[in-house]
Amino acid sequence: MTPPRLRVATYFRPPFPGANDDLALGLDAAGHEVRKLGSLDEAASADCILVTVPGQELAGVVEKLAGHVRPGQIVVHTSLDHGAEALDAVELKGAHVAAMAQVNSALWAVDFLDPAGEAIVNAFAMECHASTIRVQGSLRGPVLNEVLLLNQIPEHLVGELEPEALRQLRLLIAFQEDAFEG
């Protein structure tokens, strides 16, 4: 049985360091209808909107987008710097929100505010043949900077080291969360 297919609109403003449209490409390969958002007025016709802009521009884009979303839409941003709370303005309009930042080809750092957001990131990651690890709000910057260092491992060793790198990442996140809470 074929899972439901979404009409996905991308709000993508490259080039900037870390910009990629791998989530859009993965969803397209999985059979979703992916197109570039021509204007914000077109946002209402999409089932899902992917926002990929520099972290410092995200708040402004989300504020503009809030006037064009409808209840039940999915809005996902791909910023390494911000968690799902950066999408509060569209969530207040009834959108389901999540953050998905690509760490490497097989791992996405995700954040969500509710079970619907969690289901969305898990489904999208599965369709992109990737795993997820939750990294929330203010922890994203410090933790993901460490993770990006792990990505400097030579390509021919990545397959051998990835399970260990993922284990270390989980330990690092647990440590960061304990330090943040304590």
UniProtKB/TrEMBL annotation:
Residue stretches in coiled coil: none
Gene3D superfamilies in the cross-refs: NAD(P)-binding Rossmann-like Domain
Pfam families xrefs: Rossmann-like (PF10727)
Domain of life assignment: Bacteria
Putative oxidoreductase/dehydrogenase Rossmann-like domain segment(s): 40-95
InterPro entries: NAD(P)-bd_dom_sf, OxRdtase/DH_put_Rossmann_dom
Protein name: Putative oxidoreductase/dehydrogenase Rossmann-like domain-containing protein
